[in-house]
Specification:
Blueprint lengths: L10 E5 L3 H12 L3 E5 L3 H9 L3 E2 L10 E6 L12 H9 L2 E3 L1 H10 L8 E6 L4 H14 L4 E5 L16 E5 L2 H5 L8 E4 L7 H4 L2 H9 L8 E5 L3 H13 L3 E4 L9 E5 L2 E6 L8 E7 L9 H16 L4 H10 L8 E6 L2 E5 L6 H9 L4 E6 L17 E7 L3 H8 L4 E5 L1 H14 L4 E5 L12 H14 L9
Parallel strand pairs: 1-2, 1-4, 2-3, 4-5, 6-8, 6-9, 7-8, 9-10, 10-11, 11-12, 16-20, 17-18, 17-20, 18-19
Antiparallel strand pairs: 12-13, 13-14, 15-16
Amino acid sequence: MIRVPGFEGRRVAVFGLGRSGLTAARALKAGGAEPVLWDDGISSRMQAEAEGFIVEDLTAVDWSGFAALVLSPGVPLTHPVPHWTVDKATEAGVEIVGDLELFARALAALPEGQRPQVVAITGTNGKSTTTALIAWVLKQAGMTVHMGGNIGIGVLALPEPTPGAVYVIECSSYQLDLTTSFAPDVAILTNISPDHLDRHGGMEGYVAAKARIFRADTTNKYIGVDDPSGVALLEQLRRRGSVDEVSVDRPLEGVTGMYLHEGWLTYNVRPRPDGPVERCQIVDLSKARSLPGRHNAQNAAFAFLAATDLGLPHEVVIEGLLSFPGLAHRMEPVGRAGRVRFINDSKATNADAARQALAAYDRVFWIAGGRAKAGGIDDLAELFPRVVEAFLIGEAAGPFAAALGDVPHRISGDMATAVQQAFEAASASGREEVVLLSPAAASFDQFPDFEARGEAFRAAALALGAKPEPAP
């Protein structure tokens, strides 16, 4: 756990007692603060009391006595309307922070020679894979690496800082909205497409939240430029200083950055500040079995840039990229039964994420559906010719069927039925085929989260006789 200084002997309100809230309370208490906790859920309050925390109804306390409000990322800060705790804190002049801001302050309080380095990743899609990939590459090189944040372990639950360690942190837009001093050594924005717009008041607010990862002037900045919002933000960042771009849709000419060229990850560098840009081929990504598709080329580019920024030689980074085992529930090979491969992309909770998986295969038997997000799958129409047949589940089955139109599809209803039907159809083709779970929808109609949905897919595939494929 990371102890949070700066609030010694002072009361700090903590609202929202999920993973990040309770962890923040523990970190504050360890740093000498007096956290005062509240949650709308009785069970959460009982857990906090069982740990010995002060639990008080924050609707009926004097807010002038608080030094800060620590807000869970899941609680609205500004939209659709500010949470009542936000109103009370604002009226009392109490600053509002999140766990990522507390993490930043804890590191900033360390003597300069004892501060670890931080790599931070955000974006609409790809941030989890990029985070895991960077952590993998650094660990394979023998570095002390702590990965967490919006992935895995809450950021304040990570081990205490030690000199030479590296924190690799996935940051959500909700977390970034609650930061003011977060200053990672390497900041990465993978891409931006519409998501969580209700929580940010529209696209402008969402982009602004993501851009907060670049607030520090000393940060090494990298941004994906294969979407309009990334291009627009790139121009803003360039007016403030140096930033490198990453593209897998087009070559980069005359600027520094990374791109995909004929299957090779290619790096434009400027050996001298006033010299020309030179092109260097880095790695043939067809050799990286766990990084299929153009979106994974983008993830690999960001990982290469971050790892070399931290001092790793090119050949060490390349070895790490090629050995990456992949991220669970994101383009994850589950196994093979006969000529049919099963790919688990349960983490694709919106159409833009599913686009990456569909684009990685020429033919797919596609399992999709769940609780649809705005726009459904309409934006994926250009990829429908790759769909041999679709098998639809959950609340979105009807709307997705309408969007598919003449594309062969069935309303399977549930996961087990969809996997069975997709396997039978794929087996009947007599060809090498892929059964792809890439739902393009949230999981909450039938599953508690995308992980449970992915595990249901895995279980159904294994029940049909699928066996994990050996490593290359």
